[in-house]
Amino acid sequence: MTNNINPAAESAREDARKGDGKFGAQQHSEAPNDVIAPGTPDPAALSEQFLEYKRQASELIRKGDRIGARSIAATIKRALPDAAYLRIEESDQSMTHGYWANKILDKDKEFLADIDDDTITTDEGEEFGYDGESVWEVLSDLPQQDNIPVVTNADNPREAQYAPEYAWLQHDAGEYALIDLDAALADD
Question: How confident is the model over 55-75, as a mean pLDDT?
Fold first, then answer.
């Protein structure tokens, strides 16, 4: 029988041997301090640090989405004060992009205007220009229904709920969602 034990473990084993030749108590839940590689960071501390950075990043993403929604709402409401909702459709351009603008609706969710890359056109044919590039930038980054950011419970980090910053984003059963323009403009 060969002895495949490393020298540090063998030393720890021998140090735990009692004077009568029998082994005494030896820690098995973790390696003895002199066996741990010098400079090895504490995994629990690293895990905590990881979770904290993820929480901070998620918070910043939610704030960015909220400001983006406010920007879209302000852009549309400036052109059409009676606009209440922006109907958006899940993008079929890629798996990573959220939505593209579809229609502008009134408070009863009835058609008010079409919206394309840089023009809003009412059903009477009136046209309004807008900054379509910034609207697209926001819409392309919005989370789709299964990816809405969640907020973790401070007392139980594994428990989460949808972030309240997305109250303005209403999903339906299909591929469409609505941005409630008034809710997006509301102060926090």
Answer: 87
- 36 neighbors 9 (Cβ within 8 angstroms): no
Mean pLDDT of 166-181: 76
Residues 133, 136: Cα–Cα separation, whole Å: 5
d(Cα 164, Cα 1) in Å, to the nearest integer? 64
Instruction: Walk across the sheet containing 119-122 and list its strands.
Output: 127-129, 119-122, 111-115, 99-105, 85-90, 176-180, 169-171
Q: Which two tokens stand for residue 23?
A: 């082994």
Q: What is the mean pLDDT of residues 162-173?
A: 68
- pTM here is 0.65
CB 142 within 8 A of CB 179: no
Neighbours of 142 (CB within 10 A): 22
Residues 145/173, Cβ–Cβ less than 8 Å: no
Quote the pLDDT of residue 68.
87
